[in-house]
Write a structure and sequence with these properties.
The protein is an alpha+beta fold. The chain contains six helices and five strands, in the order H-H-E-E-E-E-H-E-H-H-H.
Length: about 190
């Protein structure tokens, strides 16, 4: 019998409890970012009622499964959680490359754009692409409202330094892994 490091049933129960709360927080953050730009909301408003699904492509099998996030555009030009089913003809599918979630998260923190594959309505996809190209979260500004500008700026600098260091470490580890697999293949 193969030993496992965790109880899958317990992990599934925990994820079933945590997932809706995490999705709600992600939608709040997304709406916070979109809501800061009137132009973004105006561009989304004509697509009220249209839905999009965010899917993590190539998610590692060793990690617990992450469900797709199904969002609908509201008449205000924001997003809300949508339920599966309904009219799938207006569905836009966005697949984010997630084969190495830690490296992708570090890349996002450093301002890199994820690899994305989009399927569906070209007009709606164009507006989502515009959002991805033109909107970003100004975490320093939000933090400054809580603790002041100078401490927020310093925390942002430290965070950037840590993210750059971790990205460098991840890059070095990936290069070492690549070299090691090359050596094994040559033997």
């Amino acid at each position: 019998m193969e030993a496992i490091a965790y109880n899958p049933a317990m992990l599934d129960d925990c994820l079933a409890f945590i997932t809706p709360a995490a999705q709600d927080r992600m939608i709040l953050l997304l709406n916070h970012i979109v809501g800061r730009e009137a132009q973004a909301m105006a561009r989304l408003a004509p697509y009220a009622g249209c839905s999009l699904v965010l899917h993590l492509q190539s998610w590692p099998a060793q990690l617990p499964a992450v469900p797709d996030l199904l969002l609908a555009v509201t008449p205000a030009g924001l997003f809300e959680l949508s339920e599966p089913g309904g009219d799938q003809s207006e569905l836009l599918r966005i697949e984010l490359e997630a084969s190495n979630p830690a490296l992708q998260l570090l890349s996002l923190l450093l301002g890199d754009r994820p690899r994305v594959k989009v399927q569906g309505d070209a007009g709606f996809a164009g507006e989502i692409h515009w959002l991805m190209d033109n909107l970003s979260w100004d975490a320093t500004d939000d933090l400054a409202k809580l603790i002041g500008a100078a401490p927020a700026h310093q925390l942002a600098r430290w965070g950037s330094a840590v993210a750059e260091g971790l990205a460098g470490l991840a890059g070095t580890a990936a290069a070492m892994k690549s070299r090691a697999s090359g050596w094994r293949g040559a033997a």
